[in-house]
Every structure is written in structure tokens, then in C-alpha cells.
């Protein structure tokens, strides 16, 4: 980043992080090479053991079987129905959680009165193992999509809410003073200083929330449901269809991974100004 | 013509324990339009507090502050502040920081851009307009802080130890730079510092404050002709003022440290 300072081009806004990333995509580092090697060795060992005819092999399936099961699922229509329902639940609940978490966090972060009002409730809920509330959600919202959206919401909302509160409260008071001194109204203070100043924290919260949302979805569906990936996991598990089970688990893991990776990218992008600004 | 008048002002301050204490006591002075005033005193003498009160961020407990014939009731766009720690928005580029005040006023994009052009040129950072503050050195950042203040075209520039966070050499360069910018339209300046050389070099008059509660100990006129280059610091007149100021402050610093 230092050498950017000497460059006198007036066009490029330096984005050190993304530049570094792009290079890495083309050339694997030694460390990454080792990591991939280890995965390959693991897969080979798994395949060998799965084919060995041992009694245990039945319980652990093998990669080729997982691939075969995956191909079957992907060519049938049923899988897409389950996937669609799960996506509906997770996006519905997650978007609600982000909206409520950011809005609530902004209010609680800014106003001591609102924080005082809701803090005990939030803390009590945050400390509760949320799984315990799933039966309640089913009674309230039925066994369909509604209760799963509620579960996703409940799991995802806290990281977003708490991070937003922290973000708002960590905005440098000096910047608020500077805003006031240039005549900012309360609303301008909000939109021009508090909100942009806490964006990095909010995005971290959203990223953490995505992981929790996945948990909420799977657990919600596993409890009582007629469709969805979590439902598949639990019914395939009960019937011991190991290859199929591993395939669905992989899909769920992939969704979590892709989602949080995309949000991580976004986070790094806004962190460009953040790292050094906080570094002093 | 009198621009700022401060009359019998007491300022009471709440410390972190919530107790009141008197920060500034019975302070009166006047600033002429276009005058460059520096104010010095031991730490805690209330000079920054006084600046906040002139700005309107803080209300005096007694007495009155007027700008022209208007009493100060709150921050206003005819006064602009330059902060010691720069206080630039780290998520805004340099040009966006410069037009921050104009944006708050709801000025259109081309007007903001024109102002940014003008002040980027004045502070000599044209090629950095799209950079972020953390990519600039401290001296450059404070030039942006000055540009941001000038961009709203205030009548009065309030500066709170603006060069206090810079190294000695950069500070000297910035002092000369500030005078160069100031000579262009000679706004009224109220400049808080604890640097003796800085106070003399910049000022038309220097207000010397006593230890807490801050009272005015003396107001010194600086009759060194302008425009001033950094060489004036070597002249006999400058040396005389430096000695005088040093003696005044020495007693106060000793008093505030409890010697």
C-alpha cells in the first residue's frame, strides 16, 4: 500500500486487497498446494476404505458413491424442489434478519433509551440456546415454510444486531464532533457519519449471520417438515442412504461456504479504508 | 472593525466524575476582522474550551460571545474548525472530504467539484483527489483538513492545535503554508497552540492564558511585517518576543504543575 503513495496517477483508486486476491487465483501458493494434496490423499483413502468390504464401510460410503448419488439427485426433479424450498426459507429469514438487525442495531446503538429498553430482552434471548425455541416456532407458524423462516430469522438476527450496535458505538467521537461542527443535522450525522463508519462491522455481522442462518434452516427442517434439505438429511439418515446423505450434506456445506465467502469479499473491500484507519 | 467579541466569559466544564469545575474565568477580548489571533497557555488552561465556545459547540456559563452583532447560539457555517487529529472521514476520498461541508449544505455536485478543484490546487494535492486519508502523510492530511474548512468559505477559521500531531519539520512547513493560504483572503483566525514560536510567527496578536481557571494574563501585539517567511524566526524582534512569552509561560506552567 505504501508504494501507492508515490504513484501520481489521479485515476486509480487503490484496492490493494482485491489486487492481491486476483493474483492468488492464478497461482497457488505452496501452502495451498499442500492443502489440496491433503484433501486428495484423504479422498483416496476414503475411497479405498469404502471399497475394502469391511463392515464399517457401509456406514461411511465412499466418494465414488457420493458422486453417483449426486448425479442421480441432480438429474431428477425432486432435488430441486427441496433446494427451492430451503432457499426460499433461508433467503426469506436471512433478509428479514438483516433488515431487522441493522435497523434495530442502528437505533439501539444510537439511543441510550432504546438500548436500555431492549437490552435485557436481547441479552436473554441471545443467551438462550435458540434450538429450544423451535418447537414454539412450529406451534406458532406451522410445519411449513413459515416456521423455518422464523427459525432462520431467529438464528441470524443476533450477530447482525449486536455487530451493528458495536459498530455504531465504535464510530470515532471526533468524527461526530467534526460532523456537528460543520453543521450536520441529526439525520445527516446518521447517514453521513454513523452509518458509513459502522459499515465494516455491520457486514461482519451479516457474514456471521449467514452461517447462523444455515444452522437455523437445517435444524428447523430436521425437527418437523415435509421438504427441504434439512428434511432430506434427516430422512436419508434414518434410512441409512449414506451416499445420498453425504451428497446433501455437501450441498448444504457448499451453500454456507459460498455465502460467507462472498460476504467476506465484500468485507475486505470496505476494509480498504478501515485497516489503516484503525491501525493508528 | 470588531469581528468577534468575548465579554466576561466564564466556562464551566464537567469532568469525567461529573463534577463541575471552572475552566475559563472572566475572559474578555475582541478580534478584528481579518486578524490572526493565536492563544497560548499551559495545558488545561481552557484555550481549547474557549475555542469550542466561540464555535458554539459549548455554552459559556456566564458572559457573552458575539460574532459581528449576533450572539453565538450554536455551530454555524460562518465558522469552520480545523482539528488537531485532522478528523477526516476515513471512508471518504480526499475530494469527498473537502466538500463534506458543502454536501451538508445540499450544494450540487458541480459546485462541490469546483470547490474541491480550487482548494486541492491551493493545498497542492491535486493528484491525490481520489486517494483515501490513510494513504497520505500527517502533513498532507492536515492540509486536507484546512481545505475542508476553507471550502465552506467561512468568515472565521477556528484552529485547535492543528499542527500539534505533526513532527517538528512538517510543522514549520505547515506554518509557512498556512500563512501563504491565509494571505490570499485574510480570514479572521483563532488559533490554539502551545508552541511559542508558532504563536509568534503566525499572529497579529497573541493571547496568553494563565493556569486553570484560565484567565487572560497578557495580550501581546506582534509587529513583524507580513508577508513573513520562516527566516523571521531568526530576527532580534522575534527573539525578544520569544523570551518574553517564555517567561510568562514558565511561571504558569510551573504553577499548573504545582511547583
Give the gist of this structure.
The complex is a heterodimer of chains A (280) and B (259). Chain A is mainly α and 280 residues long.
Tell me, what's the shape of chain B? globular
CATH superfamily of the largest domain in chain A: MetI-like
| Fraction in helix of chain B | 25-40%
Q: Helices and strands of chain A: which structural class?
A: mainly alpha
**In CATH's first tier, which class of one domain in chain B applies?**
Alpha Beta
Number of strands of chain A: 0
N-to-C CA distance of chain B: 42 Å
Q: State the helix count of chain A.
A: 13
Structure, explained:
The complex is a heterodimer of chains A (280) and B (259). Chain A is an all-alpha fold and 280 residues long. Chain A folds into two domains: 1-60, no CATH class; 63-279, MetI-like fold, CATH 1.10.3720.10. Chain A contains 13 helices and no strands. The longest helix of chain A is centred in the C-terminal third of the chain and has 38 residues, at 186-223. Chain A is globular and about 75 Å long. The two termini of chain A are 15 Å apart. Chain B has 259 residues and is α/β, with parallel strands linked by helices. Chain B has a domain at 1-78 and 157-162 and 187-259: P-loop containing nucleotide triphosphate hydrolases (Rossmann fold, 3-Layer(aba) Sandwich), CATH 3.40.50.300. Chain B is 37% helix and 25% strand. Chain B is built from eight helices and ten strands. Chain B has helices at 47-55, 94-98, 100-104, 109-123, 138-151, 168-185, 196-202, 236-257; strands at 2-14, 20-32, 36-40, 62-67, 70-71, 79-82, 156-160, 188-192, 205-209, 216-221. In chain B, the strands form two sheets. In chain B, strands 6-7-8-3-9-10 form a six-stranded mixed sheet, sandwiched between helices. A four-stranded antiparallel sheet of chain B has the order 2-1-4-5, with helices on one face. Chain B is globular and about 50 Å long. The mean pLDDT of chain B is 90. Chains A and B meet through α10, α11 and α13 of A and α3 of B.
Amino acid at each position: 500500500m505504501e508504494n501507492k503513495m508515490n504513484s501520481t496517477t489521479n485515476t486509480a483508486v487503490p484496492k490493494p486487497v482485491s489486487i492481491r486476491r486476483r493474483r492468488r487465483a492464478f497461482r497457488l501458493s505452496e501452502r495451498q498446494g499442500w492443502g489440496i494434496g491433503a484433501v486428495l490423499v484423504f479422498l483416496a483413502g476414503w475411497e479405498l476404505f469404502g471399497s475394502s468390504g469391511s463392515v464399517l464401510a457401509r456406514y461411511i460410503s465412499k466418494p465414488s458413491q457420493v458422486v453417483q448419488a449426486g448425479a442421480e439427485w441432480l438429474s431428477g426433479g425432486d432435488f430441486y424442489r427441496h433446494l427451492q424450498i430451503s432457499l426460499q426459507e433461508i433467503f426469506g429469514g436471512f433478509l428479514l434478519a438483516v433488515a431487522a438487525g441493522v435497523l434495530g442495531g442502528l437505533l439501539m446503538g444510537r439511543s441510550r433509551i432504546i438500548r436500555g429498553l431492549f437490552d435485557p430482552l436481547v441479552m436473554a434471548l441471545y443467551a438462550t440456546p435458540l434450538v429450544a425455541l423451535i418447537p414454539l416456532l412450529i406451534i406458532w407458524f406451522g410445519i411449513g415454510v413459515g416456521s423455518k423462516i422464523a427459525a432462520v430469522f431467529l438464528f441470524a438476527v443476533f450477530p447482525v444486531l449486536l455487530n451493528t450496535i458495536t459498530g455504531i458505538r465504535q464510530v470515532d467521537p471526533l468524527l461526530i464532533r467534526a460532523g456537528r461542527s460543520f453543521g450536520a443535522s441529526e439525520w445527516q450525522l446518521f447517514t453521513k457519519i454513523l452509518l458509513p463508519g459502522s459499515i465494516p462491522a455491520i457486514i461482519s455481522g451479516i457474514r456471521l449471520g449467514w452461517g447462523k442462518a444455515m444452522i437455523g434452516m437445517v435444524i428447523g427442517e430436521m425437527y418437523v417438515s415435509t421438504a427441504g434439505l434439512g428434511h432430506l438429511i434427516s430422512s436419508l439418515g434414518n434410512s441409512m442412504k449414506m451416499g445420498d446423505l453425504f451428497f446433501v450434506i455437501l450441498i448444504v456445506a457448499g451453500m454456507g461456504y459460498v455465502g460467507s465467502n462472498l460476504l467476506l469479499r465484500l468485507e475486505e473491500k470496505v476494509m480498504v479504508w478501515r485497516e489503516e484507519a484503525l491501525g493508528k | 472593525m470588531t469581528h468577534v467579541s468575548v465579554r466576561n466569559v466564564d466556562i464551566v466544564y464537567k469532568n469525567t466524575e461529573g463534577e463541575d469545575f471552572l475552566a475559563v474565568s472572566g475572559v474578555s477580548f475582541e478580534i478584528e476582522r481579518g486578524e490572526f489571533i493565536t492563544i497560548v497557555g499551559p495545558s488545561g488552561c481552557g484555550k481549547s474550551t474557549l475555542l469550542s465556545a466561540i464555535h458554539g459547540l459549548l455554552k459559556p456559563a456566564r458572559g457573552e460571545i458575539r460574532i459581528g452583532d449576533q450572539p453565538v447560539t450554536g455551530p454555524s457555517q460562518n465558522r469552520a474548525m480545523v482539528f488537531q487529529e485532522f478528523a477526516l472521514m476515513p471512508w471518504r476520498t480526499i475530494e469527498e472530504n473537502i466538500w463534506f461541508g458543502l454536501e451538508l449544505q445540499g450544494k450540487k455536485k458541480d459546485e462541490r467539484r469546483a470547490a474541491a478543484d480550487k482548494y486541492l490546487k491551493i493545498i497542492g494535492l491535486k493528484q491525490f483527489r481520489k486517494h483515501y486519508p490513510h494513504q497520505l502523510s500527517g502533513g498532507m492530511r492536515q492540509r486536507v483538513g484546512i481545505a475542508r474548512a476553507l471550502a465552506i468559505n467561512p468568515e472565521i477559521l477556528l484552529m485547535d492545535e492543528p499542527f500539534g500531531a505533526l513532527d517538528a519539520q512538517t510543522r514549520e512547513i505547515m506554518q509557512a503554508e498556512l500563512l501563504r493560504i491565509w494571505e490570499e483572503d485574510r480570514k479572521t483566525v483563532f488559533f490554539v497552540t502551545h508552541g511559542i514560536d508558532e504563536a509568534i510567527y503566525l499572529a497579529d496578536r497573541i493571547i496568553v492564558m494563565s493556569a486553570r481557571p484560565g484567565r487572560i494574563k497578557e495580550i501581546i501585539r506582534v509587529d513583524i511585517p507580513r508577508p513573513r517567511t520562516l527566516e523571521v524566526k531568526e530576527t532580534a524582534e522575534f527573539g525578544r518576543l520569544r523570551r518574553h512569552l517564555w517567561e510568562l509561560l514558565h511561571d504558569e506552567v510551573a504553577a499548573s504543575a504545582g511547583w
